[in-house]
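INFO batch 0412 | record 1 of 1 | parsing
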Amino acid sequence: MVHHPISACKKIPNLAQIFLLGFYEEREFALYVSSISNELKLPVRYLKEDKPHGSAGGLYYFRDIIMEDCPSHIFLLNCDVCCSFPLPSMLDAHKRYGGMGTMLVIKVSAESANQFGELVSDPTTNELLHYTEKPETFVSDLINCGVYVFTPDIFTAIHDVYINQEGRANLRRVSNFETFQSATRTIPVDFVRLDQDILSPLAGKKQLYTYETTDFWEQIKTPGMSLKCSELYLAQFRYTSLDLLASGDGKKKATIVGDVYIHPSAKVHPSAKLGPNVSISANVRVGAGVRLSSCIILDDVEIKENAFVTNSIIGWKSSLGRWSHVQADGNYDSKLGTTILGEAVTVEDEVVVFNCIVLPNKTLNVRVQEEIIL
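INFO prediction complete | emitting tokens
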């Protein structure tokens, strides 16, 4: 989820720095930040928020660090978004518009639009005219993709929101101390949301613009959506990174159907059949007669002879026994529509696992179905 947007940033001309903002402990990202920096030959740095500041407030909290290189523009990407990230063309459009910010947008079905931020833009100038987050009534089939480019003026806009919120908080303190207390418990004065506090108030003021994509776009709201997004990225590789896709006919290499990625360190038996939509990570071992489709196999997994995996995510260091079946019905939106095995899960020979979530370090020796195994 993090790698794809970071990789897309490499296409931005004159890119100075990439920052990851989040709540995870820094040690959890240390190895990844080091490896991705070396791989892309770009400086990547992880910044941990001390507390929730909101989608705009987090940016403002680290403003001094972000502005160290005096950037002319700042991209803001949400990592729960899957798309082609057309960042250079977005930047070109943003410069033509001459506004403070440009947001990536896409048309979706009218039935699904209210799950996202809906907006209205000028069909000629692409100016953002109206924005509302997850409205109860239909506004538009054009939605916010969660990808933005701003000039440094965004920090002034966020600062203005801070000042207004502090003023209102002080007013509440004078008028009613109890009201002020309850209000500040729900939304602190230093908490600024990009959508409600920045996009909505500035719409129609010739400061924000839209750039529409006709490529794929999804938001990763459930673990199962990772499989759908993996499928979209693998399909994109046909046009952008064909060398990353595996090939084989079942003779010297495994039979490959559709789009499949195999890490160079993985070992796959020539009699195995993989695809479509299969991603195999580092040091995976796939035995004879194994059948894999619509799955993500993470590092150091062993899949023994004649095992079958579909609509599943197999966690690090897990082991699947001979003739085992790990599968799900493939409903990406359902809680148990994808089978997920945590780290170091062992599925013994001939065991069937269907529509389950299995936490780490478990051993399964009987059939399980529609369960969350703690």
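INFO post-check: The CA atoms of residues 169 and 184 lie 8 Å apart.
INFO record closed
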